[in-house]
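Exercise 7. Given the encoded structure of a 160-residue chain, write a plausible sequence.
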């Protein structure tokens, strides 16, 4: 059961790092689709843990993520995906077609879109668990000096 936490984390990492909109936003204007080393460059902004300090050091946005088990039934368990989005307060507002709000709002919408957007039940099942991802109401993050953001928590049932 614990081994699946790593499997979920690997899948989540791949989805976040291979999302074109997330790559463009995090890597900025110098990013191109054929940019060599984009995955390595993203390692600075996308981290596989929820420990932000002292990792955050610039006028950037960051994604921190982890996995867990939210509950267990007799035959199934509820897996949990947690993504924290932190944005520096001095990040300039961006106009990105199809998105509105602050950079943290935009990243949250991008993450939700990559994980849940327009997926059939079968596609969702091939990514995570045996059902659709369910977004728990997001929380605001205001506990880091000069940074604000959102915490997205998704639950998905899986076999035990």
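Solution.
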């Amino acid at each position: 059961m614990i081994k699946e936490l790593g499997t979920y984390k690997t899948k989540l990492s791949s989805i976040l790092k291979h999302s074109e909109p997330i790559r463009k936003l995090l890597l900025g204007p110098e990013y191109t689709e054929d940019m060599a080393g984009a995955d390595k460059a993203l390692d600075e902004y996308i981290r596989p843990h929820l420990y932000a300090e002292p990792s955050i050091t610039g006028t950037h946005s960051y994604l921190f993520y982890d996995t867990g088990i939210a509950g267990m039934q007799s035959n199934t368990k509820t897996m949990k995906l947690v993504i924290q989005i932190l944005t520096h307060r001095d990040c300039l507002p961006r106009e990105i077609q199809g998105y509105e709000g602050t950079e943290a709002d935009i990243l949250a919408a991008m993450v939700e879109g990559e994980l849940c957007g327009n997926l059939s039940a079968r596609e969702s099942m091939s990514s995570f668990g045996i059902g659709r991802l369910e977004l728990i109401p997001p929380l605001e993050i205001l506990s880091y000096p000069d940074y604000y953001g959102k915490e997205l928590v998704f639950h998905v049932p899986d076999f035990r």
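Remark. The longest strand covers residues 76-88. Students should compare their own answers with the one above.
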